[in-house]
């Protein structure tokens, strides 16, 4: 059995002339929670569709639980849970009917406790139609179903949109418990960085279909530092600052967000006229934000 | 899987109940107004189109609700094979649709059977089954249209229209309809896979899709191509059907009045006898025998060429023919009470077709209902194996009766003298197959008849040879051909033979499919088409050229060697339509 839950080699997917995924090499080990973040259009949803065999790659290879994604069998799918951001469920069916179907499909591995833990946050009636549920209720029900099937690999695409604080907390608890106690692999895609920070063992950053980071969230955060410099004049030009992610000038003070800043960066700033230089760590959400928006940095001061 | 099936049944149960109630209400309404079992074929075709349309709408709605990527992933990403998911999902909608179509029909038939006011044949039960099959075919078509790639999905659906062109009768029609339904279900199965944008993954699925798409492309090229060509021709104002047709052509012959046509037929003869005939043609009345009927009743057919019933108004009885026992069954119009059966001595050769004047055509017999004694009498019986193929008509003092082998002229009093002789005054063997005969004109001479046979069916814009033959019938009843001329085709050689040079193999396949199970149809007898050598050469060159293009595309798309060879061989066999299918399907390397 492969030690990897997900493996892609040179994965490429083109939509016309645009590359949704561009020569992506990714290897996610079994177990743990792997967060995938990226701006809109980074290729996250395309990646999930290819992983589950619903989209064919233009090039490269993809393996899920050791099997080529285009050849997943019903038994493979039994071991893989997937929740999309729309929480797609049949709107005409009742809660009871959907639950009965799910329990029957996954009878050999149904985890009633995991289902009950998440569903406890919602006051659902078995006779209610799915179409009558609010977005949050539908999300909660869908997530409870996914956890109830006790998958080896659980792929969650923006799962917590629409959930209230209590439901979100219970879901995250259930995910952490499942990942640790059942050796489950969770692929978690979210724009909620505080969730990523709490959950993730690995932070994968995608940008324009390419892999930009693969590390623990703390390691990623440590790569990004904020520098505050009082430069009376214009300051160094941006193209002279490799690793510059963001630059803002607030009240005459320059704020630089740097990726992998050189040890002598403070001297560099002083060399360009800075009268004072301070450095400080940044929280993960700001680090991710700066990383993903580096191509949209403000004009040089 | 069963849970999924039940869920889909529940999803559509109220729709099915509503549609079934509406269907039953409409049937009941028409049942009060007319006899739904004795309508002409056109009515059944209209009803079948409604069933098919309902199926298509349901299929489009159901599959369309799953076709968006997230819905599709939610449906298929489960521990069931796509095939089992399809069976559950389509099985649910098919069950509801079949119930909405079949149950009201069965209730109607059972009601008639119990009450006895209207006669129910075994074939009528098949008619209900046929309605269900057509509705389910529509459902599969709708599902396929929603799920298949738009590049070629529409093309694959064209051959599914086969039941509208099929000549199959009775059980054979059920077999054809079932075959189309099964084929469409298999195509849906091949399209029902996680990646909807890709062609079928299995070799059998891909081959079935490619062959069906090629046939769709062929039909499109032949039918739509001809339509576009003729429309453009009409806009230039030189189309032979526009204004004055070309001299000596088929169109002129089909439009000419009888005298001009016979004169034109005699134009090649300058002898005195012909001159005398021409003078008589100008002075005499021309009789045009009604055209041959395309369809005649066949025992066990699902629909009716025309209503198979007539009323005896004097006795207040409606007689309805039963295919089961080949007798008429009487019902009193006032209260619906059964009044026994009506037969003819010797029995009916074939299901009778009521025509004008209280007469019936049944195989080789012309029969008449006598209102005085309430019996059916046989007026004419042709030799065994012959079938009357046109409505008898009077030509002066004669009655012209045309069979699939000969034109016979009788003393018109044969219709009145039921006990008298039915020996013909003259028998004129047909100079060609009856199915190719387009018109028949005759004049009464002082010493017999002059008959003009115009063979031009499929010869106007089709490939058949067209000609006219004049036959002289003497007063003693003997006949001999006296003139013959070839009618020149009005359409270009290239368009007349388009179905052949585009793809001879698909032309043969189309003809076989349309004629399968057709039963004894006299009008199917046609003059064999002579295909010129140049057409064969053109077809071969086009197929070779198409295969070369396939080879180039396969190389560009980096198709495997075996797959490339298979596509090239298929294109060599089927010609440009297969190239078209290949280009639209764009098989990938794994297929």
Automatic annotation (TrEMBL), chain A:
One of its GO terms (molecular function) is ATP hydrolysis activity. It holds the Pfam family ABC_tran. Residues 6-233 form the ABC transporter domain. Coiled coil: none annotated. SMART domains: AAA. It comes from the Bacteria. The keyword Plastid does not apply. Keywords: ATP-binding, Nucleotide-binding, Transport. PANTHER family: ABC TRANSPORTER ATP-BINDING PROTEIN. This is ABC-2 type transport system ATP-binding protein. It comes from Sphingomonas kyeonggiensis.
Automatic annotation (TrEMBL), chain B:
Signal peptide: none annotated. The chain crosses the membrane at residues 12-30, 42-64, 85-110, 125-147, 154-187, 207-229, 533-554, 566-585. Keywords: Membrane, Transmembrane, Transmembrane helix. It comes from the Bacteria. This is Uncharacterized protein. It comes from Sphingomonas kyeonggiensis. The lineage of its organism: Bacteria, Pseudomonadati, Pseudomonadota, Alphaproteobacteria, Sphingomonadales.
């Amino acid at each position: 059995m492969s030690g990897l839950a997900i493996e892609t080699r040179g994965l490429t997917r083109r939509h016309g002339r645009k590359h949704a995924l561009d020569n992506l090499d990714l290897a996610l080990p079994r177990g743990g929670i792997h967060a995938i973040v990226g701006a809109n259009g980074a290729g996250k949803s395309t990646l999930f569709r290819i992983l589950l065999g619903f989209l064919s790659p233009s090039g490269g290879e993809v393996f899920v639980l050791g099997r080529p994604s285009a050849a997943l069998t019903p038994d493979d799918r039994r071991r893989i849970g997937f929740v999309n951001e729309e929480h797609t469920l049949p709107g005409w069916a009742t809660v009871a009917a959907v639950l009965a179907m799910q329990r029957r499909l996954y009878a050999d591995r149904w985890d009633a406790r995991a289902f009950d833990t998440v569903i406890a946050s919602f006051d659902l009636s078995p006779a209610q139609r799915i179409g009558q549920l609010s977005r949050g209720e539908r999300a909660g029900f869908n997530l409870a179903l996914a956890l109830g099937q006790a998958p080896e690999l659980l792929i969650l695409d923006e799962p917590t949109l629409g959930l209230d604080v209590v439901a979100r907390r219970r879901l995250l608890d259930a995910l952490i418990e499942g990942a640790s106690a059942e050796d489950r692999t969770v692929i978690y895609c979210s724009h909620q960085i505080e969730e990523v920070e709490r959950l993730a063992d690995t932070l994968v950053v995608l940008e324009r279909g390419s892999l930009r980071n693969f590390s623990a969230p703390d390691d990623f955060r440590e790569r990004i530092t904020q520098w505050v410099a009082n430069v009376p004049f214009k300051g160094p030009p941006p193209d002279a600052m490799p690793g510059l992610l963001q630059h803002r000038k607030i009240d005459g003070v320059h704020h630089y967000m740097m990726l992998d800043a050189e040890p002598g960066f403070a001297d560099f700033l002083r060399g360009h006229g800075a009268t004072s230089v301070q450095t400080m760590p940044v929280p993960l959400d700001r680090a991710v934000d700066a990383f993903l928006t580096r191509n949209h940095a403000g004009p040089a001061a | 899987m069963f849970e999924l099936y039940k869920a889909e049944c529940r999803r559509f149960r109220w729709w099915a109940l509503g549609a079934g109630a509406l269907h039953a209400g409409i049937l009941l309404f028409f049942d009060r107004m007319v006899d739904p079992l004795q309508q002409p074929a056109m009515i059944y075709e209209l009803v079948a189109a409604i069933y098919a349309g309902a199926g298509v709408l349901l299929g489009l709605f159901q599959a369309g609700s799953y076709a968006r990527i997230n819905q599709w992933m939610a449906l298929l990403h489960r521990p069931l094979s796509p095939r089992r998911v399809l069976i559950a999902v389509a099985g649910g909608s098919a069950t509801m649709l079949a119930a909405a179509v079949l149950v009201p029909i069965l209730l109607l038939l059972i009601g008639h059977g119990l009450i006895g006011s209207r006669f129910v044949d075994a074939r009528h039960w098949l008619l209900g089954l046929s309605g269900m099959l057509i509705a389910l075919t529509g459902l599969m078509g709708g599902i396929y249209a929603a799920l298949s790639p738009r590049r070629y999905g529409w093309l694959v659906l064209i051959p599914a229209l086969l039941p509208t062109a099929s000549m199959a009768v009775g059980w054979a029609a059920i077999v054809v309809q079932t075959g189309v339904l099964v084929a469409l279900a298999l195509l849906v199965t091949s399209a029902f896979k996680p990646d909807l944008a890709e062609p079928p993954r299995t070799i059998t699925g891909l081959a079935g899709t490619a062959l069906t798409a090629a046939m769709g492309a062929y039909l499109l090229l032949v039918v739509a191509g001809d339509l576009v060509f003729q429309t453009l021709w009409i806009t230039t104002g030189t189309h032979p059907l526009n204004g004055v047709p070309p001299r000596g052509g088929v169109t002129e012959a089909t439009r000419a009045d009888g005298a001009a046509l016979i004169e034109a037929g005699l134009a090649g003869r300058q002898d005195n006898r012909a001159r005398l005939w021409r003078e008589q043609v100008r002075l005499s009345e021309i009789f045009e025998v009604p055209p041959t009927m395309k369809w005649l009743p066949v025992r066990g057919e699902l629909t009716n060429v025309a209503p198979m019933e007539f009323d005896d108004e004097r006795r207040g009885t409606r007689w309805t023919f039963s295919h089961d026992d080949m007798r008429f069954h009487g019902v009193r119009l006032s209260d619906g009470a059964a009044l026994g059966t009506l037969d003819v001595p010797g029995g009916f050769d074939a299901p009778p077709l009521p025509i004008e004047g209280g007469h019936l055509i049944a195989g080789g017999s012309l029969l008449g209902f006598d209102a005085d004694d309430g019996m059916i009498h046989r007026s004419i019986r042709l030799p065994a194996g012959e079938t009357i193929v046109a409505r008898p008509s009077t030509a002066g003092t004669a009655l012209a009766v045309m069979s699939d082998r000969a034109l016979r002229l009788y003393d018109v009093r044969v219709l009145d003298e039921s006990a008298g002789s039915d020996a013909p005054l003259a028998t004129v063997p047909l100079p060609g197959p009856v199915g190719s005969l387009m018109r028949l004109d005759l004049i009464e001479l002082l010493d017999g008849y002059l008959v003009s046979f115009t063979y031009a069916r499929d010869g106007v814009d089709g490939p058949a040879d067209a000609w006219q033959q004049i036959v002289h019938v003497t007063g003693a009843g003997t006949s001999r051909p006296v003139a013959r001329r070839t009618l020149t085709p009005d359409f270009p050689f290239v368009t007349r033979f388009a179905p052949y040079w585009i793809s001879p193999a698909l032309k043969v396949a189309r003809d076989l499919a349309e004629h399968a199970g057709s039963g004894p149809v006299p009008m199917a007898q046609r003059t064999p088409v002579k295909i010129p050598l140049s057409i064969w050469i053109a077809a071969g060159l086009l197929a070779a050229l198409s295969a070369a293009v396939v080879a180039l595309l396969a190389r560009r798309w980096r198709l495997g060697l075996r797959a490339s060879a298979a596509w090239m061989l298929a294109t060599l066999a089927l010609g440009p339509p297969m190239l078209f299918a290949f280009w639209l399907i764009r098989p990938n390397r794994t297929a």
